[in-house]
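Teaching assistant here, posting this on the class forum so everyone can see the example we discussed in section. The complex has three components, and the goal was to see what a joint structure prediction looks like when all of them are supplied at once.
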Amino acid sequence: MQVIAQRPKSLRDIPFTYCPGCLHGVAHRLIAESMDELDIRNKTMGVAPVGCSVFAYKFFDCDMAQAAHGRAPAVATGMKRSRPDMCVFTYQGDGDLAAIGTAEIVHAANRGENITVFFVNNAIYGMTGGQMAPTTLPGMKTSTSPYGRDADDIGYPIKASELLATLEAPYYIERVSLLSPQEILKAKKCVHSALKYNKEKRGFTFIEFISTCPTNWGIEPIKSRDWARENMLKFFEIGCFRDKSKTVEGGK
Amino acid sequence: MPKMTVDPYYCKGCGLCIKACPKKIIRFSEEINAKGYHYAECFDQDSCIACKLCYVTCPDVAITVEK
Amino acid sequence: MAQKVLMKGNEAVAEAAIRAGCRLYFAYPITPQSELIEYMAKMMPKVKGTFIQAESEVAAINMVYGASGCGRRVMTSSSSPGISLKMEGLSYIAGAKLPAVVVNIQRGGPGLGDIQPSQADYFQATKGGGHGDYRLIVLAPNSVQEFADMASEAFDLADKYRNPVMLLADGLLGQMMEPVEFKPAKTEEEIEKLNKQHYDWCMRTNEDGDDRHHHEINSLELDPNVLEKHVLSLHEKYKDIQKNEVRYEKINVKDDNEILCVAYGTASRIVKSAITELQKEGHSVGLVRPITVWPYPSEVIANSITKKTKKVIVFELSLGQMVEDVKLAVNGKLPVDFLGRAGGIVFTPDEVIAKIKESL
């Protein structure tokens, strides 16, 4: 008998600190598997954010930095410029990337930093206990939008992928869904491509994961995926917003 | 013979693999793990077709599939 | 013998940093330190180094965090309002035990203040600034030559203690031109050796097998017992620094001093001129110039007081931030007086002489 699926080498033997059914773990696995497949585990460094995935530095089997809230793309810039021979990625949530860290992500993308940014969008702040995120949907109730997000008062959710796709430099930007095994398999291909482009030093790559927060949404894991499908995917459309390998000759 | 195993060390009993399995051969165990979760287990290995959908969907990367 | 060149402090410290093996520099323009970032923009490409004009001072200090986490010699610089923005990052750098060099070309504050020389960031530099129990090693030069010399010393101290080091200068020192003689530039081999000195903890390539490592650059620890242990270990390090790294200069400190002055940086130059004038008039006045303002030369100040000393006077380009440290050093043995100017105004030797004469 042959093992056809098991924990990737690029994940350490430490259980995740996420709530049951939280899809952070799926995103972690896709990244770790791609690192294994591309044989970059020994020349990869990552940056963990502030948020639920603050402990991501413990989970990946490569050297990791833990960054101040929102600053991961700047930290990754310093790392990549120090060790250009290595692959550098950040892993960030929606509060980290689309609220407190908007300057850092926009400018890292605009410089075309040779890094990969993995962005987990679940429309809420998880670690601090379910407050409104920059990606919280209009009308969605959270502990700091108890009457529902009023777009006229506080604005609409930020579409990070579309925002970054207005810049010239980024090489690859895609929004993927983690809401079913089939969608996860599609997402895997995108994660693999992003890290492959990273390995080939093609430029800035960005993957936005549509994810869930069963605990703070107050919806059990299976139904939370249905809720996300019905509500989040209408606003955050799945798709590729930039892929220069298809538009630029020779993919360079 | 295909086989799926869940490592109780990682499993948090979210049930996503139970939903994903096309053969409906995964259930919550009666036992609990060290964290107090009723972890997932396969109760009918003979019916496993090694489709890996349980592995794909598992957020705690607790599943190994053999063929 | 190396040639002396006439240079601005801002440019001299940049050149000295490159010679000391700094190959990464991240910063944001601000007056009166902009010549520093401009010099780096011009020179870093010539040594195959990295220069990035960051989107903010916040981003710049976090780029420093990333590069330092990779064990490289890295520097940033700014002036007072920009240094405030770097305080978050400095706290993380200190917490994660990372070496880094930060230059502050102080200007008048608070708030946006003005662009004239000032020493009003003393509290911020020496007492914290960022959150948490941490210390910066703070070197305060008073000439362009010393500023340049301190650049390489700052990198050595940062590497030795795995701690951020601040060069605390001001707009006068940054903008002023003086002759300066540089140390020889480190060779590529020497820089390679410096890069490897941190291999036991920094982020770098890995390998399978027994030598595999998992290095984490991190300041987070949720277990209070473990965090306390970490903070205590930092504290032990700070005690070592206090024991080993106090630097100062004594100018005309003698047994017959009637007055003992304390001043650092630009202010110390003016006090020194005043002392020379007073000497001509037959008055014996001494000056202790802290070169490290943290660790502070408390014992040196205490030991410089003699039976003849009537008073200690502190001179600063602020409204008296270092006075507290001097009072702690003097420990009630003598009255401690003060003269300072704020808002970016630099006192004249005559003002200093007049102040000292009040007590003669």
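For the discussion questions: The interface with chain A takes residues 1, 3, 9-10, 12-16, 19-20, 35, 37, 50, 52-53, 55-61, 63-67 of chain B (CB under 8 Å). Chain B has one domain: 3-66. Think about how each of these relates to the inputs above.
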